[in-house]
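Ticket reopened. Same input as before:
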Amino acid sequence: MKNILELNEKKIPVVRIDKSLNKYSNVVLFPEKVAKAKEAIERIGLPDLKKNAS
Amino acid sequence: MKLDRYELKADEQLTTFDFLSEGPKGKIEKVIQFTLIYQDNLYNLAFGDRDYLSGVIDDRIVTDNGDSEKVLATVVASIYAFCDRVPDAMIYATGSTAARTRLYRMGINKYFDIIEADFTIFGQTKSEWEQYEKGKDYEAFVVQRKNI
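Engineering reply: fixed in the latest deploy. New output:
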């Protein structure tokens, strides 16, 4: 059985599901950040990930 | 390479995470959220502190709890978890202030080799996106998990 230190070394972490957080699933907690991101994407578009992915 | 990080909790959709920062200022609840912006796979990443009394979440507060590297490592861990659920997600991130964006950039630079092995990273200049280069100044970042 893996101990907690071994699990912590994994890049994909162990995440405990907390149903009390479900109340945020459809709530935008950081509206200013989202607005800023949308403004940037509308202005300069998205990076061409397919072209540049290595 | 092992980076120390906090234990994460999340909602069932793995879009909202939280964890407790522990340091000289005590235990401070941090909340991370991935918000769908456009299309099916572009998400904004943001995180901030939740005030224990008011419940208000603030992404501009300077916590100064002496654990900024551990906090950033925990946020990066949440990206891995989120991308495990949404493998083709593109994740947009920027700081709430120029100083905080610079802090994120320093974190990316420090662990660039580790991040670059698993993610395609782009930096946003004033007018365009370019493949991320260490040491350059960017206003925002987009990462996408590589197919590994």
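Residues 3 and 41 of chain A are 43 Å apart (CA to CA). The mean pLDDT of chain A is 80. Please confirm and we'll close it.
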